[in-house]
Design a protein that fits this description.
The protein is α+β, with helices and mostly antiparallel strands. About 20% of the residues lie in helices and about 30% in strands. A hairpin with a 4-residue loop joins strand 7 and strand 8. The longest helix is centred in the C-terminal third of the chain and has 15 residues. The radius of gyration is 18 Å and the shape is elongated.
């Protein structure tokens, strides 16, 4: 794994800018308009390119063996950038199917709303 050190810059509006080294841009095949995400690791921050244009909130079925966990290989039921729309979707689906379901926020790695048929 390569490591880089960069200095934050500030634009004319006072917003911070994190310059990305050209080697990372090439390695991740980044283009203008691409979405990137980062996660904190024991060694700093890992930077990755988002696959496609994912939405902020994803509605997923919960694995009944665990309190709060879903299988990331299972299909996403619904995606949106609107939290209230996602909550409405999982509520309606839960009321129809009575199957454990949740709103997952991948960028924060947290569930924002969930409904259980029973708590394991």
């Amino acid at each position: 794994m390569s490591t880089f050190t960069v200095e934050l810059e500030v634009n004319d509006n006072g917003d911070f800018i994190l310059p990305i080294p050209q080697e990372i841009i090439e390695k991740l095949n980044l283009k203008v308009g691409d979405s990137i995400y980062w996660e904190h690791t024991d060694n700093g921050i890992a930077l990755n390119k988002c696959k496609g244009k994912s939405k902020e909130y994803q509605c997923v079925y919960l694995d009944s063996r665990y309190t709060l966990w879903h299988d990331e290989h299972e299909p996403i039921l619904f995606e949106t950038d609107d939290l209230s729309e996602a909550i409405g979707y999982v509520y309606e689906r839960f009321m129809k199917e009575h199957k454990s379901i949740a709103v997952w926020q991948p960028s924060a790695k947290h569930y924002r709303e969930h409904y259980f048929t029973e708590i394991p």
